[in-house]
């Protein structure tokens, strides 16, 4: 009923509190669709996790910018939000409340997305299958979780980038010969 990457996003969001991974999971899923079929609702969910990642790290301006954009998407695409099993009105209200907290420099606290009964059941089953609890608060002492964007292993990305550069260089050399 719900795409597995979405359920994985929800587990990362509510259990691991790995908002960086939330972004990675949904961005890959969103980009897997042909460009003309990409749904903005996924971008909104990505932006919610990015906003919380920034807020948790103390980057209020980045958090405010992302959350403002996410709220706009949630309101504009409220029917799509509902189809994903989220209460769009409640979600918009929660996000606006969080935005006010950010603007008032209040500290980060974990946030839960308001799920319908059907989504909650699918989420609980996914948690059980992956041997996860249904909820945990952020571990504010986990430096890797808080700074994942700068601490993660990117060797595969860098290797692929180098490979692509070498291939372009080889094509240029072949064209000039």
Structure description:
Helix 2 (19-32) packs antiparallel against helix 3 (40-57), helix 3 packs antiparallel against helix 4 and helix 4 (60-76) runs antiparallel to helix 6 (88-103). The protein is 72% helix and 0% strand. The chain has 177 residues and is mainly α. The chain has a single domain (4-140), classed as Hyaluronidase domain-like (Orthogonal Bundle), CATH 1.10.3450. The radius of gyration is 19 Å and the shape is globular. The relative contact order is 0.13. It holds the Pfam family DUF309.
For the record, give the distance between the C-alpha atoms at the N and C termini, rounded to a whole number: 55 Å
Beta-strand residue fraction: under 5%
Uncertain stretches? none
Q: Roughly what percent helix? A: over 70%
Radius of gyration: 19 Å
Task: Identify the overall geometry.
Answer: globular
Quote the average pLDDT.
89
Structural class: mainly alpha
Named at the architecture level, the CATH assignment is Orthogonal Bundle
CATH class: Mainly Alpha
Give the biggest beta sheet: none
Number of strands: 0
User: What is the fold-level CATH name, i.e. the topology?
Assistant: Hyaluronidase domain-like
Run of helices and strands: HHHHHHHHHH
CATH superfamily heading: TTHA0068-like
The number of domains: 1
The count of helical stretches stands at 10
């Amino acid at each position: 009923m719900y795409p597995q990457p979405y359920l994985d996003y929800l587990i990362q969001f509510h259990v691991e509190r790995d908002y960086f991974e939330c972004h990675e999971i949904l961005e890959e899923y969103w980009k897997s669709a042909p460009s003309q079929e990409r749904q903005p609702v996924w971008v909104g969910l990505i932006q919610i996790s990015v906003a919380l990642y920034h807020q948790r790290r103390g980057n209020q301006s980045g958090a405010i910018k992302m959350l403002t954009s996410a709220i706009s998407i949630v309101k504009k695409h409220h029917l799509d939000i509902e189809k994903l099993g989220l209460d769009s009105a409640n979600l918009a209200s929660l996000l606006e409340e969080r935005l006010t907290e950010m603007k008032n420099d209040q500290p980060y606290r974990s946030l839960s997305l308001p799920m319908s009964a059907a989504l909650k059941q699918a989420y609980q089953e996914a948690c059980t299958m992956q041997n996860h609890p249904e909820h945990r608060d952020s571990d504010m002492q986990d430096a890797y979780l808080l700074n994942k964007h700068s601490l993660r292993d990117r060797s595969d990305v860098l290797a692929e980038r180098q490979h692509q550069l070498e291939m372009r260089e080889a094509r240029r050399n072949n064209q000039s010969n």
